[in-house]
Design a protein that fits this description.
The protein is built from seven helices and two strands, in the order ααααββααα. Helix 2 packs across helix 3 (about 35-45), helix 2 crosses helix 5 (about 75-100) and helix 5 (about 75-100) packs across helix 7 (about 120-135). Strands 1-2 form a two-stranded antiparallel ribbon. The chain has helices at about 5, 15-30, 35-45, 45-60, 75-100, 105-115, 120-135, and strands spanning about 65, 70-75. The protein is mainly α and about 140 residues long.
């Protein structure tokens, strides 16, 4: 479930930009082509907001987006998105399985926490969850 290769990757992106990358990552694993409307629906934002965010991410070399076309992650974008997503999964799992928080609350809280953890904290959480799963 957890891919240690990318999970420690820190970004210089804001929380919103990380959310967009994560949404594109998840959607691209679910469907063949990711479109602006899919991202807008997932993040509950307007289509124009998605376009603005995609332009900023494209300027950073993290996504490719053709006007009225599909959206895809670049190699760097995929690695960054995977790291954010892996942190999300780690936190969701920890909150739900270890702390006993409901799955819905764990999912919501993981979205908030995934953006601000240090690499050290992530490493300790991974070690804790792995050790606990072996017991």
């Amino acid at each position: 479930m957890l891919n240690n290769t990318n999970i420690y990757r820190r970004t210089r992106l804001g929380e919103s930009q990380e959310d967009y990358l994560e949404a594109i990552f998840v959607l691209s694993n679910e469907k063949k082509a990711v479109r602006v409307k899919d991202i807008a629906r997932r993040l509950k934002v307007s289509r124009p907001s998605v376009v603005v965010a995609l332009n900023a991410l494209a300027d950073k070399g993290l996504v490719r987006h053709e006007h009225y076309g599909g959206v895809e992650l670049t190699v760097d974008g995929r690695a960054t998105a995977a790291a954010v997503y892996q942190r999300h999964l780690l936190l969701e799992r920890f909150l739900h399985q270890v702390l006993g928080v409901s799955r819905a609350v764990a999912r919501t809280d993981a979205c908030r926490l995934e953006h601000s953890l240090s690499a050290e904290t992530v490493q300790r959480l991974i070690a804790f969850v792995k050790k606990r799963n072996r017991q």
